[in-house]
Amino acid sequence: MRVRAFAKINLSLRVLGTRSDGYHELRTIFQSIALHDTLTIRARRGAFTLTCDDPACPADGTNLIYRAAAGLWRAAGRRGAPRDVAIDLQKRIPMQAGLGGGSSDAAAALRALARRWRVGEAKVRTTAAALGADVPYFLEGGAALGLERGDLLFRLAEPPARWVVLVLPDFGVSTKDAFAWFDRDRPAPQEHELVNDLEAPVAARHPEIARIIAALRRSGASHAAMSGSGSAVFGLFSGRETAVEAARRLKASSRRALVTRTLNHQRYQALAAT
Ligand code: C5P
User: Fold this and answer.
1) 178 lines ligand 1 (CB under 6 A)
2) In terms of pLDDT, which residue wins out, 91 or 62?
3) Is the pTM of this model over 0.90?
4) pLDDT at 105
5) Mean pLDDT computed over 81-92
6) Mean pLDDT of 154-180
7) Which pLDDT value is given to residue 59?
8) Quick check: 124 pLDDT over 70?
9) Which of 24, 45, 235, 270 is at 20 to 30 A from 182, Cα to Cα?
10) Residue % of the chain over a pLDDT of 90
């Protein structure tokens, strides 16, 4: 069985305060994009195994796919460690980029394993929430408003489809660091709604972020911002040609850029399981 794990961007990410559990209170708009990893799930006797085509991607117990399998196995009332399943991950979503790759892989594994192990939806949701703040979103996909840790979700009316230029700096940002920098800097609250409050603290340490945003705007992006805790930066375009041209220009200045599309809830649900 093969399942796709789509990436997300945050069209907006407001940090409203700190919580007693060490997390931050958020108001964020998630949007799925067509860029995806692919998980191949096979029945195989013996201990659960995870393999990945990207050597930089940990394939051990620290990978969220492994933790998803272990959590669901327990939720299914089984003892010990998960077994008799092998998962192979084709990694295409850049890591430490704010695109939710690890969380999406975990949600895709939960969906596939829940079918195999006959685990109900309620247990899948509880397991997802325990894995990370972004994982519950990836059970839904499309356009969604995330409150609290980003895990209290509300479906949004789908905005018109957009072309997305993703620019991937040659450094990554850890989510923990980005929030710690926010706490240290306490940037002044911004007026407009489509803002990523983590952008200024990250750009203060990595000025390349602001340079990419400016370049995307010059190339005609209707909106350009950092996604999540970075380091990926996205630009939105209504036409494919303008998006391709913007990506070409960024590549000409030695940057890694790719063109993808937004994905609505219906397409997300239809394509997530193939
Ligand atoms: O939940 P997840 O493991 O993805 O979060 C990684 C880190 O990001 C957390 O340990 C926390 O430091 C930070 N975070 C936060 N507030 C959120 C989401 C994440 O402070 N709403």
Assistant:
1) no
2) 91
3) yes
4) 98
5) 96
6) 97
7) 84
8) yes
9) 235
10) 93
> CATH fold of 163-265, please?
Alpha-Beta Plaits (3.30.70)
Q: How far apart are CA 113 and CA 127, in angstroms?
A: 12
Strands 83-90 and 49-52: parallel
Side-chain half-sphere CA neighbours of 253 within 13 A = 13
134 lines ligand 1 (CB under 6 A): yes
Beta bridge mates, 141: none
Residue ranges per structural domain of the chain = 2-153, 163-265
Task: Please give the number of the atom of ligand 1 that sits closest to the Cα of 150.
Answer: 21
Catalytic hit among 37, 134, 151, 197? 134
User: Tokens 């950092």 label which residue?
Assistant: 226
Dihedral sign, Cα of residue 208, residue 211, residue 217, residue 222: positive
What is the CATH architecture of 2-153?
A: 2-Layer Sandwich (3.30)
Within the chain, strands assigned E span 2-18, 24-47, 49-52, 83-90, 143-148, 152-155, 163-168, 223-226, 233-237, 256-261
Rounded to the nearest 10 degrees, how much is the dihedral formed by the CA atoms of 173, 175, 178, 181?
Answer: -120
CB 133 less than 6 A from any atom of ligand 1: yes
